[in-house]
Amino acid sequence: MNGIGIRSGAPPEVRNEQLAQLQEFVRGDNRLQDWRRIEYPRLAASFDALADVPLRTWQQEHPPSRNASWDAFTRLVAADGAG
Length: 83
Prior knowledge:
Oligomer: single chain
Order of helices and strands: HHHH
Number of helices: 4
Shape: elongated
Largest sheet: none
Mean pLDDT: 83
Number of strands: 0
Structural class: mainly alpha
Distance between the termini: 30 Å
């Protein structure tokens, strides 16, 4: 799905390169993890902390839209210092 993997029968140098790519992928993008740590609580604050909020209710409060996506992306980039 993400195009990262270790090809069976690949020469050792190719295999090492593919393994390095896979290890980097597994480590993840800390910016996304940091953003999630900040963004999710910001959105969830409009609900009771112990509530089991159905997706439809969440979407009524925070409707998915191009503007919402842009807003969230802008905060991600700004948190990284690039915006």
